Amino acid sequence: MEQSNPTRLQELAQFLRTRRARLSPEQAGLPNEGRRRTPGLRRGEVAQLAGVSVDWYTWLEQARDIQVSAQVLNSIASALRLDTDERKHLFMLALQQLPAEPIAADTAVSMTLQTFLDLQGTSPAYVYDQRLNIVAWNRAASLIYGDYEGMSMRERNSVWRTFLSPYVRQLLQENWEHHARHRLAQFRACYAQAVGDPWWTDLIGELNRESPEFRAWWPRHDVLNGPEGKKINHHPAAGLLVFEQISFRATDASHLTVTINIPSDEETTAKVRKLLQRM
């Protein structure tokens, strides 16, 4: 914790006290020892559930400036039965950072989100998960970036596709290396949440075997998040297409990221519209 912000420490202490006060022993899986003078759990019970000392937890509720790790915060969040939003709030107060999100198994998108993609019209739009798998898309994206419907899940992984698909190299041409390095840096940032996971290990191994560029760049440990900005594509039927890219998290599924490539000029808009009408 930073030593210079007592207001934040007081806010953290008050938050912990209110969460403790609302939780009964029965809710926490503890025996009910009869009526209590004050509602909620005792500090010692929270400490026991979280696997920390009573003194240490007491100092936290007293707004003392002590060191706290993400692992301990997760234990406290579990002990106090915090929901997702409360857990994020706890991490922001204690560490000024959000907790690492677990890799979600469910990659299905809602009908509302799919409708949103479809309504983008001449703006190719897609959704990817924490593994950078493309899990939803609109028709413009499929016509420009490839027939996602006909691809396997591995082929729809944007890192695999970037490094091993000849079509992507043709589409990006002189901009391929910039795109590939950016996508790899995104992949490295996501990998931090799943180091040692067999799915990631298998994909990294395959890319190391099949792509000399991946093999050369992976050891650099470059890390990056965020959209690429301007995207220049060379489509085999439409020709030169120029887009401005924007990305954001889906509010109804925070493990999914929505990317929209907006035509940067009228010529690109007209070319995409013609593709949609013709194909």
TrEMBL record:
<dbReference type="Pfam" id="PF13560">
    <property type="entry name" value="HTH_31"/>
</dbReference>
<protein>
    <recommendedName>
        <fullName>HTH cro/C1-type domain-containing protein</fullName>
    </recommendedName>
</protein>
<dbReference type="InterPro" id="IPR010982">
    <property type="entry name" value="Lambda_DNA-bd_dom_sf"/>
</dbReference>
<dbReference type="InterPro" id="IPR041413">
    <property type="entry name" value="MLTR_LBD"/>
</dbReference>
<dbReference type="InterPro" id="IPR001387">
    <property type="entry name" value="Cro/C1-type_HTH"/>
</dbReference>
<feature type="domain" description="HTH cro/C1-type">
    <location>
        <begin position="15"/>
        <end position="87"/>
    </location>
</feature>
<dbReference type="Pfam" id="PF17765">
    <property type="entry name" value="MLTR_LBD"/>
</dbReference>
<dbReference type="GO" id="GO:0003677">
    <property type="term" value="F:DNA binding"/>
</dbReference>
